[in-house]
Specification:
This protein has 161 residues and is mainly α. The protein has one domain (31-159). The protein is built from five helices and four strands; from the N terminus they run ββαααβααβ. A hairpin with a 5-residue loop joins β1 and β2. α2 crosses α4 (115-131). The two termini are 23 Å apart.
Length: 161
């Protein structure tokens, strides 16, 4: 059986040996630190995108006598989710910050992340960040260093080799 196929452990639970910490510890080495720095880089990029969208909406608001200003509330979350959908769900499987730090997001079974899963992953992350921050401490006890939003989205962050 090849490394990328799902096999069964002694207990009968399926797992993917491609992302097994025991057989590939190098994929997870320093991943938390890398993800934190990648988040800071991505937060700066998303903030810049929000400012650009804000300026465009402001100008459109002047031209439409304030009507376009109603768009800003709807566009605010779309920018962050769209950024993640296009980058994590794109060909590189990583945001700009993740690529800078050598991190890639993959589906837990080894497949590629779709744009919809990328947006869902971002939504879960921002909800966990704003609603219940301690949930982000889960990787401290997880063998693959996955956050709960990674687990719920069915993805795993690995070093880009």
């Amino acid at each position: 059986m090849s490394d990328t196929q799902t096999t069964t452990r002694e207990q009968g639970t399926p797992f993917n040996p491609a992302f097994d910490v025991v057989s590939h510890p190098d994929l997870f080495e320093g991943i938390l630190r890398r993800r934190i720095v990648a988040f800071v880089i991505d937060a700066i990029i998303i903030t810049i995108l929000w400012v650009i969208v804000g300026v465009v909406v402001f100008v459109l608001g002047i031209l439409t006598l304030g009507l376009a200003w109603l768009l800003y509330g709807a566009l605010f979350p779309i920018v962050g989710l769209g950024y993640n959908a296009l980058t994590v769900g794109g060909a590189n499987q990583a945001t700009i910050g993740m690529r800078t730090m050598g991190v890639k997001i993959k589906m837990w079974h080894g497949g590629t992340v779709s744009p919809l899963i990328g947006a869902f992953h971002a939504l879960l992350f921002w909800l966990s960040l704003t609603i219940f921050f301690p949930i982000l401490l889960w990787p401290l006890i997880d063998r693959q260093k996955r956050c709960l939003h990674d687990i719920f989205a069915g993805v795993v962050a690995v070093r880009n080799s």
